[in-house]
Amino acid sequence: MEIYSRTDKGMVRHSNQDAERHGFFEDGSAWAVVCDGMGGANGGNVASSTAVGEIAVRLTANYSAGMSANEMRDMIGRAIEAANIKVYIEAQEDISLRGMGTTVVVVILRGDTAYIAHAGDSRVYLYAKGDLRQKTVDHSVVQVMVDRGELTEQEARYHPRRNLITRALGVKPRLEIDHCECQVEKGDILLLCTDGLSNYLEDKDIFRILYQYKKEDAVNRLIDTANAHGGGDNVTAVTICC
Predict the structure, then answer these.
(1) Tens-digit pLDDT profile for residues 121-168
(2) CB-based contacts of 11: which residues, under 8 Å, 6+ apart?
(3) pTM over 0.90
(4) Distances, alpha carbon 116 to alpha carbons 83, 86, 136, in Å
């Protein structure tokens, strides 16, 4: 199992409000966190970096190889909730940070099971058996419109409100978190990314790159291609290669 990552400010933004952290537990299980901050240059940076730092500390302190699936979900959820409270309190105490928040996606890969938790529109994809599947569902205005049948998936990609999210860590004292699991096999790839990638690359582009390139070359090609397609946002990609 290997992890590769890269984060980039893109071609337009002056600072990078994305943040990521990843590592391995003592039993060899892998973990990764990706956040995409919002709330002005300073606020976005603080929200995302604070969130990934707090979640990383909580995961590494509380993970145990003997945890059941329910205990894994609870542990991940508590880590995200702790980060939510920390970011929310910082925003209330510093008027210059009011309104800051961040998306969050967390993955722990233990054995053949990936445990996923998220809020916002940062995503997890699974590349497996020559196929690419999005495993998370965006918490966004356009996703609600797609679910209602008001937009197609293709129309949502170019809608002027595509960047508006319906959930964000740190904005309110409580955060609703979605959880899911998926099975993986040797050779599969889990991709965590911010919308700076998914807004500039279609699924077929992501599939082609993961098919053609390996290890850090795949991550670099994903970022470089997003930038070549406009790079209008910060962009982050993390791959966990099974």
Answers:
(1) 999 999 998 899 999 999 977 766 776 776 667 666 666 666 779 999
(2) 227, 230, 231, 232
(3) yes
(4) 16, 21, 8
Are 37 and 100 in contact by the 8 Å Cβ rule? The answer is yes
| Contact predicate 100/39, CB 8 Å | yes
Q: How far from 235 is each of 25, 64, 103, CA to CA, in Å?
A: 26, 32, 13
| Rounded-to-5 percentages of helix, strand, coil across the chain | 40, 30, 35
Residue 132 tokens read as 């690419």
Q: Select the CATH number that applies to the domain covering 16-134+167-241 from these four: 3.20.20.70, 3.40.50.1010, 3.60.40.10, 3.90.650.10.
A: 3.60.40.10
Neighbours of 16 (CB within 10 A): 20
